[in-house]
Design a protein that fits this description.
Mean pLDDT: 91
CATH class: Alpha Beta
Shape: globular
Order of helices and strands: HEHEHHEHEHEHEHEHHEHHH
Structural class: alpha/beta
Oligomer: single chain
Number of strands: 8
Number of helices: 13
CATH superfamily: Aldolase class I
Length: about 350
């Protein structure tokens, strides 16, 4: 069943767990996510970046997601736009049937230049007003992540623009967002930290302070792949040249979940799972040329990672407990809050 993301985050908050938000670009990734969700009885947030929408095309992407909903009617699924760079990007996603959008006003429309607080509030509030009129969930961002992924990001260190908890509190009051992504030192992409992160570079205390100030706001951790060493080693074993990197440890994500984090973005881990499996097929059976021969094991490898994250974040076992709520019902919900 297709549902607004707010429904999933509300249930996660009521039951103190987090939900993995998993990026997709093609059919096999969606299949891997849905099979993992079925096997673990997990709710699902499938998200697509602007890069994914360009690569796949909105029509293909929409129908792939709707096929997932049709084939797994027992699984509540939210279709989410990841890192919308401007109101028009968000509005086009709403027109395509997305049930949730992210207006990343922390950066200017170029997706690279840090925006001012007032600019961020203005564009985010514009999206909230329109999206809520259609019952669609809105995620905003305050603070700026490091790194670049899919052409989006300010680059540099994740510590360059860490979220100010007081500013986060004002931002939520000014915009009315359903969920808030915060910058705590993480970065987009595979190369987040050059050593195992400590409190000096991964500032989980900021999440704890924001949650104290905003106990009823759903927090979001971006750049939260764990970059498993075994997957990096497999990529390199079969011809890759990935340099050493450290991701966000699962125990730190679980710490965040205890302090209001309800959505955890995971992309790099799944990319590593897919690439390592494909490289293995190419290296061990170079005579293979049928795409199914390498995409099938790639799909299985990603499914395994998804199952691990769904279990670690606590969402496993909760899909069947979530009642379907329509966008129309959410329109009334938001209208009453005004």
């Amino acid at each position: 069943m297709l549902v607004p993301m707010r429904i999933l985050l509300d249930h996660a908050a009521e039951n103190n767990y987090g939900v993995a938000a998993l990026n997709v670009n093609n059919m096999e990734q969606i299949q891997a996510i849905m099979e993992a969700a079925k096997e673990t009885n997990s709710p699902v947030i499938i998200q697509a970046s602007r890069g994914a929408r360009k690569y796949t095309n909105d029509a293909y992407l929409r129908h792939l997601m709707l096929a997932a909903v049709e084939l797994y009617p027992e699984i509540p699924v939210a279709m989410h736009l990841d890192h919308g760079n401007a109101p028009d990007t968000c509005f086009s996603a709403i027109q395509q049937g997305f049930t949730s959008v992210m207006m990343d006003g922390s950066l200017a429309a170029d997706g690279k230049t840090p925006a001012t607080y007032d600019e961020n509030v203005a564009v985010t509030k514009q999206v909230v007003d329109v999206a809520h009129a259609f019952g669609v969930t809105v995620e905003g961002e305050i603070g700026v992540l490091g790194g670049i992924e899919d052409g989006h990001g300010a680059g540099g260190s994740g510590l360059d623009h860490v979220t100010d908890p007081a500013e986060a509190e004002r931002f939520v009051a000014a915009t009315g967002v359903d969920a808030l992504a915060v910058a705590i030192g993480t970065s987009h992409g595979a190369y987040k930290f050059d050593k195992k992160p400590t409190g000096d570079v991964l500032k989980m205390s900021i999440i704890e302070e924001i949650h104290r100030r905003l106990p009823n706001t759903h927090l979001v951790m971006h750049g939260s792949s764990s970059v498993p060493r075994e997957l990096v080693d497999l990529v390199n074993k079969y011809g890759g040249k990935m340099k050493e990197s450290y991701g966000v440890p699962l125990e730190e994500i679980q710490r965040g979940i205890k302090h209001g984090v309800r959505k955890v973005n995971v992309d790099t881990d799944n990319r590593l799972a897919i690439t390592s499996a494909i490289r293995k097929v190419f290296a061990e059976t170079p005579d293979k040329f049928d795409p199914r021969d390498y995409m099938a094991p790639a799909r299985e490898s990603m499914k395994a990672v998804c199952k691990e994250r769904m279990t670690a974040f606590g969402q496993a076992g909760n899909a069947s407990k979530i009642k379907s709520v329509s966008l129309a019902t959410m329109v009334s919900f938001y209208a009453k809050k005004k």
